[in-house]
Specification:
By secondary structure, this protein is mainly beta. It has one helix spanning 80-83; strands at residues 3-4, 16-19, 33-39, 42-45, 72-75. It contains 1 helix and 5 strands; from the N terminus they run E-E-E-E-E-H. It has a 5-stranded antiparallel beta sheet, with no helix packed on it.
Length: 85
């Protein structure tokens, strides 16, 4: 179930599935969904760039950027074997 993203409510350093219209890229990510995590109020995730030479990973680390924060998120369900731990 999707939940409204709120920095104060999301557990830090735990991977989540996130959505934002700003994540939409018609060619690489038409659904606007990324996997990432929140750390110190900053959402970290990977996104595609035009050139492999430019690196495939872009972290939003400089400062909190409201354009880079998800609007909605959901927790990643545990696999059955993880539930036994």
């Amino acid at each position: 179930m999707w939940k409204k993203f709120n920095v104060k409510e999301v557990e830090e350093c735990v991977d989540i599935i996130a959505y934002s219209p700003s994540f939409i890229d018609e060619e690489y990510n038409p659904r606007g969904i990324r996997i990432g995590y929140l750390q110190l109020g900053v959402f970290h995730s990977a996104r595609f760039k035009e050139s492999y030479r430019d690196s495939l990973i872009d972290f939003f680390e400089d400062e909190p950027n409201t354009d880079a924060l998800p609007e909605e998120y959901m927790e990643i369900p545990k696999r059955e074997s993880e539930s036994l731990l």
